[in-house]
Amino acid sequence: MACRRRPGSSTSDRRRADLHRFLRTPSNPRTNRGLLQDMSQPPQDRNPHPPPDDRQHQPRNDRQPPPDKTRKNRSILIWLVLFLFFLMAAQFLPRRGDNAVTVSYTQFQQFLEADNIEQVTITEKLITGTLRQNSSTVVEGANQSLREFKVYIPFDDPELVADLMAKNVMVTAEPEATNWVGYLIAALPWLLLIGFWIFILRQMQSGQRGMFSFGKSRAKMIVEDRPSITFADVAGVLEAKRDLQEIVEFLKNPDKFHALGGRIPKGALLLGPPGTGKTLLAKAVAGEAGVPFFSMSGSDFVEMFVGVGASRVRDLFDQARQNAPCIIFIDEIDAIGRHRGAGLGGGHDEREQTLNQLLVGLDGFEKTDSIIVIGATNRPDVLDPALLRPGRFDRHIVVDRPDVVGREKILEIHVKSRKIPLDDSVKLDVLAKGVPGMVGADLANMVNEAALIAARYDRASVTSEDFEEAKEKIMMGSKRQLVISDKEREIVAYHEAGHALAFELIPEIDPLHKVTILPQGRGLGVTIPLPEERYLQSRSYCLGTMAAALGGRAAEQIVFGEVTSGAQSDIEQVTRISRHMVCDWGMSEELGATALGEKEHEVFLGRDIAHQPNYSETTAHRIDQEIQRFVTEAGERVEKLLKEYEPQLHVVAKALLERDTLSRDEVAALIEGKTLPPKKDDNAGSKDDGDSGSKDVAQEDGESAAEEAHKEVAQDDGEGDTEKSSAEEATAETPSTDGNGVAAVDGSDGSEKSDEEPVTAPDLDETVETSKRR
Prior knowledge:
single chain; five-stranded mixed sheet
């Protein structure tokens, strides 16, 4: 009859349970030590309900660090050196027969004839033996009597053994001992060479992930150390953020979508111009997703070895399947996803092999339902169609330039995240309206520049003037101190005055914002319009913009009777716009709504790659005539306008020579015949700025004084030489810039932009409407 034990009545059962738990516990010295101490206590002293330990609710930080391979290798090397040292020392240790005295072969024969040898041991070349005890033999030169001896056999003596046997000598034959130490010492140089080679290989493997691991994926797996960026840190791309949030939600809660028959998208392709936040969105996905995140660049797949790209793609998807569900992000995917063709290398091209393997990984025979691939590129026009089809990249998410609301939110995020103190004069909504076309990277740079400018002036907060200066620096470049002649300065003033009047008097284009003759960037002067949020351009808008672009050239012709090279970029701009109007937008009555010419251009980068004419020579002649007509009519229109307002042209130009910079209100007042208030005294600092205002004024005073000094020196050298030198300097500037403010319309602060502009109307808005963004 078995008796039932009461729980806790048997100490041995509890100890057995503790031991079982101890054996199943991972090897943690601290945990095991505590368990052993607990087992050593009597049962009554152990609390069956221990108090809750606060460490249970803390993340585990007691993980053993990975073993130090360098320390392990160093220990192995030390033991190897000690082993070799003992082997070398063993060579000099006394061996058997080392107490014997070496005698000559002649003495050995004398011992044998005298019957003094008791026993011998014969090896291949050595005889060791013992003399009889009753014999006392003294070896010459040894100064001692001996009992044990050894002798080396000079030659093979077949009668030696018979002679020994005849003298009743006990003969023992032994094989020659193998000299392992000698062999080891002889092989030591080779061992050292092999060891050195292995060391070099291991060093090469430790760097760049190993010499022979080039076929392995170099994707960075993010599991615990996730970026701190979340979707809350992304603004201005609401639609793109919503699509990616849905993908993350699908991975976190797939049952919600499976219940309605939905399936997870295989991939999402982020498309957009540079700086719009494609990589930032990927970082936000990595920060929000609760699954492993693999990050890799498209250029990491292809190396100098053939087949490496395909091997890395296979390894990447193998790792992803092992860690599913997960997300793979490939930045700049156009590096491996370019359109396939019969070019050099054909089907054996390394990039094509990599692309083929990527296509198989995205949608092949193997199951990849829990793997989402996110790609980012600003060149969707070069991607292979097989890569873009549904089932591989199901979603094409356009990350475009933010609108005015998006720009305001982006500015708020950057100001808040950097903890930038703002002055009461700063209105982010007004600031966002004044920077149309800027992307997130431009806005972040502007906020940073404004903070640096405020710090330069020792201000306690960032003011609106700091943001305005930062905006102009990003759009037009830094201000320069150039020494130019009074004649050229006057030409620049009239050139910019012509632009300013045209922007103010032509109603169908963007209004004027600011005009200055201070050199900025690579331009000698700048006229800045205030563009609106516009995605379509009308015919009247294009014609008015062309007229405003030629306003500076017309002013030079009216006042000085000739034109200068400062209108180079103006002419390029109006020619480009007129060609778009004729060939792309069908705004010519002569040619009608006809697309003339096949262009291959970069969609988001705004550059034409190739232009293939698909029209006859006669049509080409008509195109040239229409382009010339548009340009001529724009020039005649603005010249007529400036002649009508010639007195105002002189007034605005003289005001620019006096003040260097005029705002829209000041230009409008001058056109209406009003008198501007006297210029503020440079020595009077702003009360709000305090000391910083004084420093600003002092700096302006210094710059003005330096400029006047340079001018006086230049005039003393002679007017003719000065004008010649200045003309040469202006000539050096004008090939790549509108020397007198062409930046007013070409969007490049006087710098020469690429002739290859995008063909679509929204892309023209980027270059014409923003009018001096860069």
